[in-house]
């Protein structure tokens, strides 16, 4: 399903995303008409709209458009992407006044507990890291490089050699004291990460790849999958089945979510 402002989107309206690719988005998982962290997703859209277009976004209307696009319960879980962009944006005049519009797309959600990831550290800092923008070339190119080296995905390190995040997820570690350690550095602030911080003792600190391998366990987080274990980094195995990661996954699944 693909709707722009509540009506089916045509090729002409989608052309700007393909050719200009200027906008921002958020991705949420809808289960039984409810979304974990819905308010945080809406806050992100409003914040990023001001950063990208210099204008306010009517988040009540966004919520209504998502509600329209999602079948009434019961139904299987869906991944919903809300993209905000201006189909009339002039490539030569991006500073012109914009009229952002709301594109809502849906797809069936994958399993809530996919297998653990094998990660490869690669240096990459996303452009405007704090904004969830639609320019995904850099992160997908890095993911491709990791897969060509035999891994499932990339684990980003910054120019100083510190771990930051992944292409479409945040990363966390469990230390010997049962604390969750979130790496310090330029990274997209994830909604799932924000929710997990409310559920378990945590700290934020610089983490090098060597320090990551010294942690008891590692996991990645995003709205589509929740909490996913990490099996290895750069070919070095990490323990799976850690009780803290298991507890985090269960606590996250048990969050009731907010009704659309």
Task: Summarize the model shown.
The chain is an alpha+beta fold.
Assign the CATH class of the largest domain: Alpha Beta
Distance between the termini: 17 Å
What is the N-to-C succession of helices and strands? Answer: EEHEEHHEEEHEEEHEHEEEHE
How would you describe the shape? globular
User: Structurally, how many domains make up the residues?
Assistant: 2
* Number of E strands: 15
pLDDT averaged residue by residue:
95
User: Which band does the percent of strand residues land in?
Assistant: 25-35%
How would you name the CATH homologous superfamily of the largest domain? D-amino Acid Aminotransferase, subunit A, domain 2
Helix content: 25-40%
Poorly predicted sequence stretches spanning 5 or more consecutive residues: none
Characterize the main sheet.
8 strands, mixed
Tell me the layout of helices and strands.
Blueprint: E1 2-4, E2 7-8, H1 11-19, E3 23-31, E4 34-35, H2 38-53, H3 59-69, E5 78-85, E6 101-108, E7 117-123, H4 137-148, E8 153-157, E9 170-174, E10 180-183, H5 191-197, E11 202-205, H6 209-213, E12 217-222, E13 226-233, E14 236-237, H7 243-254, E15 258-259
Parallel strand pairs: 7-8, 7-13, 10-11
Antiparallel strand pairs: 1-2, 1-6, 3-4, 3-5, 4-15, 5-6, 9-10, 9-12, 12-13, 13-14
